[in-house]
Specification:
Largest sheet of chain A: 7 strands, parallel
CATH superfamily of the largest domain in chain A: Aldehyde Dehydrogenase, Chain A, domain 1
Number of helices of chain A: 14
CATH architecture of the largest domain in chain A: 3-Layer(aba) Sandwich
Oligomer: homodimer
CATH class of the largest domain in chain A: Alpha Beta
Shape of chain A: globular
Order of helices and strands of chain A: HHHHHEEEHEHEHEHEHEHEHEEHEHEEEE
């Protein structure tokens, strides 16, 4: 294939058919799709096996690529959940009479064509397709070549369902994998309304640098938990340990423990046993290092400058001891990726100051940053966590797959 | 100056002070600012004269650069209007208990630091500063070097008012004009939250290509008015003429008359006299050309391909005759810049189909596209008209100078 533009044009045309579907029809498409995914388990797993066979066992992406009966069931379940969510399109946000007989409305409408660029995980294919169909959008999917058989099998099932409903297959288009087509996608402003890169930091940076199509940045999470003076150390320890170990490979996991000098001894005493049990490697600053040495902490390193502002995505974290609240806030301002930030404190004024001043998509008092998630927030499946401030901040879920349109109905009105 | 980064850092720091201001304080700052602008009329006009003297009289930008007593009064009036608007920050969009004692809120908060890159018009300086201060944001302004004295004089007045309120001057920062600093601004993702280019298409395209900071595209307006079969020709003619001549230099002015074959004779007969009176040059397609020749229309050219999809910004328009509704919709889909599109029709079903299917920021039935404007829509002053779909579509006014923040208050909550 020389160009993907014809595919993008077809997707754009197909988006009109999807936009015109009624709410119940969209739900019906998804419910049938969930059944079809379950019924096609064998084909999808066969295709997945081809992808798995081609990937070395040592590749850390192998688990993300893997599908099995449970994960297929999860896929179908997730589609049913999306079907049950409320349609974000169609809402009338404002009605105003500009002059006698000249009526203005601001209405919520589907975006049109949503582009997603992603890597190994084939479940993204089904998640994105179902979110887009639910909200009246078409989508163009650029998956990784390591998942090409799995993605093709899933999109085949989706397209069969579309055809059964008399809808154009192009409403869910899987783009060819070769890298040379990425540039066409990134600059296809006439056909693609929004691009969401989902995957490694290098993928996201590449898209950000080269896209002309408006992009949502779903960036890295460099997340701090700040244990303030006078914090309840038991709460602090439970939250810190949970934020680090409950699922270390994700973006809302803790990266740096910020702890006030007045609380550091007590806090490190409280967390060292549970962190040790999970073999968490600690990169400690000059104050925390001797304390952890004293406690006999076995997985200990001296922190270097690079260990602050670093997203570990692993059973690793850094510890920074601060003198007072201002230093803590300044550290967060300097090193946060503005994803999720927490304070542990019993001081209500300080808590409110933290919530107001700290600039992040999600800010927490006395809770684990691990809650930043579309599902946990009650929004349903998400396409990613936005760390920028335009359009969507935090979980990018169904409710954000719309834009506005200004509709004006007159009767010969002119501007004077 | 070697780098503008220190200025951007100061603006970011200043944004916290502005964010913390109460609603009434923000209004008070603007009200004093309006008075200070009026009181400084002489200085501002002197500075403006320096800019005017340096610009050749033949430069078409000269009128945009010009300030006078009336325009200063307008500036102050516009600031007072912004002061009277409702603060978009602080709204709580959602409150949800995630678990017993774990409360989630989605709140509306200021963006932080708003960057605007613009050309000759010094009124943009005061408009943007007042919109940003009203909504709790700092701003960094990169004006054109042809307006440097005017902009400096206006920012001096603004900064004096900030100082009177004990606020940091850096909350409204005028950046140095040399071009080499633009790249720093476009990539300053840690300090600038949003960039809005306002001006020529080449400026906008440059920003779109090179910015890493999220950008709002305030693009060109290639606007069609489609006269459908059976349209009321009197209404059609009034609207077409108004959309073209009332203010031809702006983005919501008509560029192309699309007219059904069944209505073309009557329509052109009706519009030729008023368009001729305004010396509107018409680029007519092969069907319209002989009709206008027959009518003795004096300012007539044969349309070339380039005359469709062209933004004239002048007393010029093209005429395209279509056979049926589908061809009209297809023409708009191909050539529209998705800014403002109108249909003239007495057919209610066709009107609704147009409003639904045509993909543009503003869609009209039986009204002039000239209404697409923050002021006309009742939103107050605008920073520009967004022709993309993320965050803001159509007039980018005060209500869009905010983002969301997810606030979670717990009491030791962890994720299991």
């Amino acid at each position: 294939m020389n160009s993907i533009i014809p595919l993008l044009q077809q997707a754009r045309k197909a988006s009109i058919s999807i936009r015109k579907l009624g709410d119940q029809q969209r739900r019906d498409v998804l419910l049938l799709l969930a059944r079809a995914i379950e019924a096609s388990e064998a084909q999808i797993l066969d295709a997945n096996q081809l992808d798995l066979d081609a990937m070395p066992d040592t590749d850390p992406k192998k688990d993300r690529l893997l599908l099995n009966a449970d994960r297929i069931a999860d896929l179908a379940g997730s589609i049913r959940q999306v079907a049950a969510l409320e349609d974000p399109a169609g809402a009338v946000h404002l009605t105003r009479e500009l002059q006698a007989g000249l009526e203005l409305q601001k209405v919520s409408v589907p975006l049109g064509v949503v582009g997603v660029i992603y890597e190994s995980r084939p479940n993204v294919t089904a998640d994105v397709a179902s979110l887009c169909l639910r909200s009246g959008n078409a989508c163009v999917l650029k998956g990784g070549k390591e998942a090409v058989h799995s993605n093709t099998a899933i999109v085949d099932v989706i397209q069969q369902v579309l055809v059964e409903f008399g809808l154009p297959e192009a409403a869910v288009t899987l783009l060819p994998t070769p890298r040379e087509h990425v540039q066409e996608l990134l600059t296809a402003t006439r056909y693609v309304d929004i691009l969401i890169p989902r995957g490694s930091d290098s993928l996201i940076q590449f898209v950000r640098k080269n896209a002309l199509v408006p992009t949502i940045e779903t960036g890295a999470g460099v997340c701090h938990t700040y244990v303030a003076p006078g914090a309840d150390i038991k709460k602090a320890a439970e939250i810190v340990v949970n934020a680090k170990v409950q699922r270390p490979s994700v973006c809302n996991a803790l990266d740096t423990i910020l702890v006030d000098r007045s609380a550091v001894d007590e806090l490190l005493s409280a967390v060292s046993a549970p962190l040790q049990a999970h073999k968490v490697e600690i990169f400690a600053d000059d104050i925390a290092f001797p304390i952890l040495t004293e406690l006999g902490y076995p997985y200990l390193q001296r922190a270097t400058e690079e260990d602050f502002g670093r997203e570990f995505l692993d059973l690793k974290c850094s510890v920074k001891v601060v003198s007072g609240v201002d230093e803590a806030f300044e550290h967060i301002e300097t090193f946060s990726s503005r994803h999720s930030e927490a304070i542990i404190t019993e001081d209500a004024d300080l808590a409110e100051r933290f919530l107001e001043e700290v600039d992040a998509a999600a800010v927490y008092v006395n809770a684990s940053t691990r809650f930043t998630d579309g599902g946990e927030f009650g929004l349903g499946a998400e396409i990613g966590i936005s760390t920028q401030k335009l359009h969507a901040r935090g979980p990018f879920a169904l409710e954000k797959l719309v834009t506005e349109k200004w509709v004006v109905r007159g009767n010969g009105h002119i501007r004077t």
